[in-house]
Structure formats: C-alpha cells, structure tokens
Design a protein that fits this description.
Organism (chain A): Sedimentibacter hydroxybenzoicus DSM 7310
Number of strands of chain B: 18
Helix content of chain B: 40-55%
Oligomer: heterodimer
Number of domains of chain A: 1
CATH superfamily of chain A: Phosphate transport system protein phou homolog 2, domain 2
Protein name (chain A): Phosphate-specific transport system accessory protein PhoU
Shape of chain B: rod-shaped
Number of helices of chain A: 6
Number of domains of chain B: 4
Subcellular location (chain A): Cytoplasm
Number of strands of chain A: 0
Structural class of chain B: alpha+beta
CATH topology of chain A: Methane Monooxygenase Hydroxylase, Chain G, domain 1
CATH class of the largest domain in chain B: Alpha Beta
CATH topology of the largest domain in chain B: Beta-Lactamase
Family (chain A): Belongs to the PhoU family.
Keywords (chain A): Coiled coil, Cytoplasm, Phosphate transport, Transport
Order of helices and strands of chain A: HHHHHH
Chain lengths: 219, 570
C-alpha cells in the first residue's frame, strides 16, 4: 500500500517537473517572440498555454485523488499541498507569458520607440529565476530556492528603471505613448512572473522545512 | 513451527485421554452390570423355594423381606405356564398382558432359568430381567433397573472434562518449556550466524551436533557469496573507473527512463553538474531540454539509434542515443555525449576560410578580366587610357601573385620543409635590414620608424624571421595615423628573446584581438582595399612564431595603438 503511494508521489513529482519545463519554454518563447518580433514564436506560446492548463488540471486531479484515497499525513500531506499551491503559480506564469506573447504580436509590425535594452535583461533575469526555482524543486535545493527569492529584487529594480525610461519617452513625444504603455505592461508581466517564481521557490522551501517563509524574512 | 508443535502435542494428549475415558467407562459399566446381575441372581437363587411363593401371604412376606435387605427396588413377577401374570408387586390390581413370549420367561420354562436386558433408548436406564422356574407351572421373575452405559458415561463426564482442563494446562506449560528447549539451539544458530559462518570465531559458539552440517553449509555459502561480492565489486569499480575517466558523457537509462548510471562528464555536458544520483531518478530531473527529451522518446519508441547535436552556451554536444533492446522490447538506453565544440568551430572557420580565399582570389581576377575585355573590345583607344588600365591590370596581377605566394609560403611554413635551413642568425642584423627596407614607405606616410636592439643570436631560418619582422612592421606602418610612430625592439628577459613592435595607430578592438591571426581575417573589411595586403600577414607571423615555439601577445586599445609581442624561448 505504502509502496503504491510512494509510486504515486513519484509520478506527481515528475508531472510537476514536466509542467516546470513547459513554463520555462513558454516564457523563453514569449521573450524571443517579443525581442525578435517573431509571430511564429508568439503562436507557439498560445499552444504551450493550452498544454500548461491541461497539465494543471491533471496534476490537480491527481493531488485530490491522493488526498481522498490515501488521506496522507505529515510530510506526505505537505508534499501534496505544496504541489497544489505550486501549480497555481506555474499556471499564472503560463498566463503571463501568453499575455506577453499577445502584446508581442501587436508590436511585431511596429518600430520600437527605443532599442530594447532593459526589457531583454529583465526577461533574462526572470527566465533565470523561473529556471532556478524549478531546479530547486527538482533537486530539493533549499539554498538555491533562497537565492531565487533574493533575485526578485533585481527584477523589481529593472522594472523601476524601465518605468522611468518609458516616462521619459512619453515626455519626449506623446506619439510614443501607446507603445510605451504596451512595453510597460510587458515589464509588469515580467515582474509578476518574477513574483510567481519567488512563490514557487518559497513553496520549495516549505516542502523541505515545513515552515512557510514570510516575504523578505531570512531562514 | 512453535504453534504447530504445540497443537500436535495438545491433540495427542486430548486423543489419548479421550480413549482412556471411553475404555474406562466401558470397563466400569461391565463390572457394575455384572455385579447388578449377580445380586439379582443370588437373591433369586436363595429365595426360590416353592414354599416362599405358595400363597399371597408367603409372597408378600418374601418380597418385603428381600426388599428390606437391598437398597434398590426390585420388581417381582410370577408367571404361569400359559404366560398369565399371577403376581406382580408393582401392578397388583391391573391385568397385565401375556408374558409367554418374553425371552426370559420362555427360556426359564425351557431351561429352568433365563435372563434378558431391555435396552432403553429414551430412558437412561436399562431393565434387567432374571427368571427361574419355582415349580412346574410357575416362573418367578425378578427385575431391576441398571444404569445404561450412556448414563455411566454422562455420570463420569464432569470428571473427564475436569481432567481435560487440567491436562490442557499441564500440556500448555510443559509444551512451552519443551518447545523452547528444542528451539533454543536453532535460535542460537540463527542469532550467531555471523560467528558460525566465520571460520575463526566458529569454535566459540555452541550448537547442536545435529546442526553442524547446516552451519558447515552456511560457511561454504558465505565464502561463495563473499567471492561473488568481491567479483561484482571489482567489476563495478572497473566500470566506474572507465566511465568516470571518460571524456565523453555517459548515461544509462532503464525502461522507465530512470537514470541507472551517469558519469561526471555526463552531468557537466547536460549542464547539471550538481545532479546527485542516489536512487533512480528520472531523466527529466536531469534535464528539461525538450529537444533532447523528445529525441530520447523517439529513440525509445522506434527502437533506433539517433545522433543529435545540441548547443549549450556556445558549446556543441553530440548525443548518441542507443536503445538497449531485448528482442522487440526496448529495455533501456545508453546515451553517449561527445563534446564537438572544437570540431564545430573548426568547421565554421573552415567554411569562412574557403569563402574568404575564393573571394580574395576572385576580386583581382574580376578587375583584370573587366579591363582586359574593355581593351579587347576596342572601347578604349587612346594611349593614356590604355596605359592607365593596363597598369591597373598589372597591379591586380601582382596582387594575385603576392596572394598566391603568401598562401604558398604559409603552407610551406606549416609543413616546415625548410627546417634544415636553420642557421645561427643575429636578430639585430635581420631587424636592421627590414627597417631599412621599410624606411621609404614610412617616410611616404610621414611616420617615424625606429628600433632598439642588441646583438642577440638565435637558431632560425633567416628568411622566416625577416618575414616576421617585415609583416609586423609593415602592419604597424599601414594601420598608423598621420605623424605616428613605430618602435621595434629586441631584448632578452627571463631567458626569453622578446621582440616587440609598437605603433601609435588605429588599434584593434577587443572582440577582434583573438581573431586577427586567422587567415584572411580583416578587422575592417571595407578598408582592406586601400591599404593593400592579403589578410595573410599576421597569419604568417603566427605560424613562424609557432615554428620556433614562440608565444604571441597582443596589447591594444582601440584608437590608441597596438603592441604585438613575440616571445621566443632561448
């Protein structure tokens, strides 16, 4: 009985990693779609979003089934509840990536009001955060998860820089306003993705230590 | 085992005590019945005189007399020869049925005596009848109740049950002690198996003699197992040494795509060098690279070998996926990863090189053919123009020749066919000569050319060294600024001969510095035409330096000048 339950947990673990892989690909693809003005990539993000949603449902059902049938306690319960929380954050990352891809489709046939410098940097930083939060989950690496939580500040700073730049652009010429707002939205989505990645890292810490980290607190 | 033994003991004692109680009740009953019969017979025998039974008064007297002497009731019946009951002390006023056919009566009339036991199914008592002839016409019958065998059994049943319970308790205690005693040495054997199977400690442990063959078997088995373990360890260590020292990455998967084995290179090449394989872990935990995973899936599904190139941070890796198949089913997979970065980069350089060389050769030829065609078609007639164009054709021809000469020289240096032409040369003389050759060119461009050198001797090919200086100084002059300067130096330091050519020219940007020694590589592709040159100069310098085990260092700041230092071991 226990043996079968362990097997189920293992499958759940692999499903989560798979979903992690999907969100990584999704945000990478949407960043490429934006920077290279690539419509094909943007379409690919839509497909990925569907896959991510399905994956979320599958994992959710799996978790509920395990909760009902096995009535787990202690660390088993923690693993399953962590999984349930993590997929919500992962799914939100997928949604935000899709939102970025949607705006990219619109921007693809426009000239950028200024060369993109900080947005690619910010994208890179968030992708790295997402990647490492999934890595931390795969390897049950508390240290790495803590680093991810720290890196959220980098993304937040970049968001402030981008915001200031875009305000300047609008002051220069009001014509720039429409695109500036689109770019600001993208930056905001990236910033949200960073937050979700931080959440995932926090859940990883919770599943290892059993204590939920309060934002900004050191463990 | 313990339980079974216990049950068997209990069963045996139960069966034996049951048998004993059955036999006992039977014997007891037989004795009791015989005694009862005997009493009746004796009473009858003693009182059978006819006078005792001749009239009612005598009968009553006899009956009362007899009954007063015994403590149980007796029925007296007198039957005449017709079977009619003449007297019965129990049914005095009733008319009883004819008794003629009763077996005891019948037998009494015939033989003088007769007896019969009427067994009762319902009543727990049997009736015993005994009859004797008292005269020719009358038979006296006595009957009494005796307990049936069942009744006897029921009577002694409580005793039996009590003895069973007692037996059970005794058996339980005894069996436990007994079983413990039997099992003790076996438990000891199991508990001290390590000592027993160890030849050295074996002597210290007491076991049954009868168990000695088992312990000997254990020892033999243990020896065998140890031997197997050692063999397996040796094999595993061998394999580990092989895989760990392999430059290639090595991963072994089972049919669930769980990693059974992975070496260090494998982890590094996949880009997850922190990966820790304790139990089996799925491949997805190692890498989430969708391309690789899908190729692995494909290879599993179609049971075929796949080679796949993957790029990771500017490094190129080739994955060889080999499914391990048992007949039709894929039972695992062997993955070898090869670092093909060098090959891949060499491929890129080679393709760039051939594109460059054909371009460099084609450009002068296009010019030559173009002008020659103009002249051939008679489109240019005046002497001045012909002179001008033919001199351009001449120049381009010369350029082509110098290019081909450079290529040939380069391949010659590469093959180093002139090695035996090495002589001891004075580097100062070589530099002096080169500087004097280039002085005119430097003056034309308003550049101050100077050199500092002492007499330093080196075993080398004169032409090569002169070529090296020429190319370096020529470049320094060509890529200089107006009123710039070039200083060439030769000196010894820390056992090295150091030659340095420093200019105040345009400099080389950081990203070009490591590429300038590639053949045909130009920092500024559009400028190459004005300054001339083949794009092979520094490549030749590099090859000559390498020929004499020299090291080249470039120190340059864009827009500020360049210093190229060549260090030869002495």
């Amino acid at each position: 009985m226990r043996n079968r339950f362990d097997k189920e947990l293992e499958i759940l673990n692999l499903e989560l990693i798979k979903m992690g892989g999907l969100i990584e690909e999704s945000i990478e693809t949407s960043a490429k779609a934006l920077i290279n003005k690539d419509l094909e990539m943007a379409k690919r993000v839509n497909e990925l979003e569907v896959e991510i949603d399905e994956m979320e449902k599958t994992i959710e059902n799996h978790c509920l089934k395990l909760l009902l049938q096995q009535q787990p306690v202690a660390s088993d319960l923690r693993i399953i509840s962590t999984a349930l929380k993590m997929i919500t954050d992962m799914e939100r990352i997928g949604d935000n990536a899709e939102d970025i891809a949607e705006i990219s489709k619109f921007l693809a046939n426009q000239k950028f009001i200024k060369d993109l410098v900080h947005i690619p940097q910010m994208a890179e930083a968030t992708i790295s955060m997402v990647k490492r939060s999934v890595d931390a989950f795969v390897n049950k690496d508390k240290e790495l998860a803590l680093k991810v939580c720290k890196d959220d500040d980098v993304v937040d700073n970049l968001f402030q820089i981008i915001k200031t730049e875009l305000i300047e652009k609008i002051q220069e010429d009001t014509e720039n306003g429409e695109q500036a707002i689109d770019l600001l939205m993208i930056a905001k989505y990236l910033e949200r993705i960073g937050d979700h990645a931080e959440n995932i890292a926090e859940w990883v810490i919770f599943s290892i230590t059993g204590e939920h980290r309060i934002r900004g607190e050191k463990i | 085992m313990k339980r079974r033994l216990f049950l068997i003991i209990l069963l045996i004692s139960f069966l034996s005590s049951s048998a004993v109680s059955i036999v006992t009740s039977k014997v007891y009953y037989d004795l009791y019945a015989a005694d009862a019969k005997n009493q009746i017979q004796t009473i009858l025998g003693l009182t059978k005189e006819e006078s005792n039974w001749k009239d009612n008064q005598a009968i009553n007297l006899s009956v009362n007399k007899i009954l007063s002497t015994v403590n149980y009731s007796i029925r007296f019946t007198i039957v005449d020869i017709d079977g009619d009951v003449v007297y019965d002390n129990r049914a005095k006023n009733e008319v009883l049925e004819n008794h003629k056919d009763r077996p005891e009566i019948k037998s009494a009339f015939q033989n003088g005596r007769g007896e019969y036991i009427r067994r009762s199914d319902t009543i727990s008592t049997d009736m015993y009848y005994y009859a004797e002839k008292i005269n020719e016409n009358e038979v006296l019958r006595l009957s009494r109740e005796i307990s049936s065998i069942n009744q006897v059994f029921i009577n002694i049943l409580p005793l039996i049950v009590f003895s069973f319970v007692a037996l059970f308790v005794v058996v339980y205690i005894c069996a436990n002690i007994f079983i413990k005693k039997i099992l003790k040495p076996i438990n000891l054997l199991a508990g001290s198996i390590n000592e027993i199977t160890d030849d050295k400690k074996h002597k210290d442990v007491y076991i049954y003699e009868e168990l000695e063959p088992i312990s000997r078997r254990f020892r033999e088995q243990r020896l065998k197992i140890n031997q197997y373990i050692n063999e397996l360890k040796y094999e595993r260590d061998t394999i580990n040494i092989i895989t760990d020292n392999m430059r290639e990455g090595f991963i072994l998967l089972n049919k669930d795509k769980n990693i059974l084995s992975i070496n260090k290179s494998g982890k590094e090449m996949v880009g997850n060098d922190k990966f820790d394989l304790q139990n089996e872990r799925n491949i997805i935990e190692l890498t989430r690279n969708k391309n690789i995973l899908s190729k692995i899936d494909l290879s599993f599904k179609e049971n075929k070998h796949i080679a796949y190139d993957s790029e990771n941070d500017g490094n190129y890796f080739r994955y060889y996926l080999s499914p391990v198949a048992d007949k039709e089913n894929v039972t695992g997979m062997l993955i070898l990863i090869e670092d093909i970065t060098i090959t891949k980069n060499a491929e890129i350089i080679r393709s760039e090189f051939s594109a460059n060389v054909s371009h460099e050769l084609k450009t002068p030829l296009t010019t030559i053919i173009g002008f020659a065609e103009l002249i051939k078609e008679g489109l240019i007639t005046d002497v001045d123009s012909i002179k001008k164009y033919s001199s351009m054709i001449n120049n381009e021809g010369l350029r082509l020749i110098s290019l081909i000469e450079d290529i040939m020289r380069l391949s010659k240096i590469e093959e180093n066919t002139d090695k035996n032409e090495d002589t001891i040369i004075n580097l100062k003389d070589v530099l002096n000569k080169v500087v004097s050759l280039l002085e005119v060119k430097a003056e034309d461009l308003n550049i101050n050319l100077s050199f500092e050198a002492t007499d330093i001797y080196m075993k080398a090919n004169y032409n090569y060294i002169s070529e090296l200086f020429y190319n370096l100084i020529d470049n320094a002059i060509k890529y200089n600024k107006e009123n710039g300067s070039v200083i060439a130096k030769i000196y010894e330091k820390d056992g090295f001969i150091i030659t340095s050519v420093k200019d105040t020219g345009v400099g080389i940007a950081k990203e070009h510095q490591h590429r300038i020694f590639e053949r045909f590589y130009r920092v500024d592709k559009s400028r190459s035409k004005d300054t001339g040159g083949t794009g092979l100069g520094l490549s030749i310098v590099k090859h000559i330096a390498e020929l004499y085990k020299g090291q080249i260092k470039v120190e340059s700041i864009e827009g500020d000048g360049t210093e190229i230092i060549v260090k030869f071991p002495q």
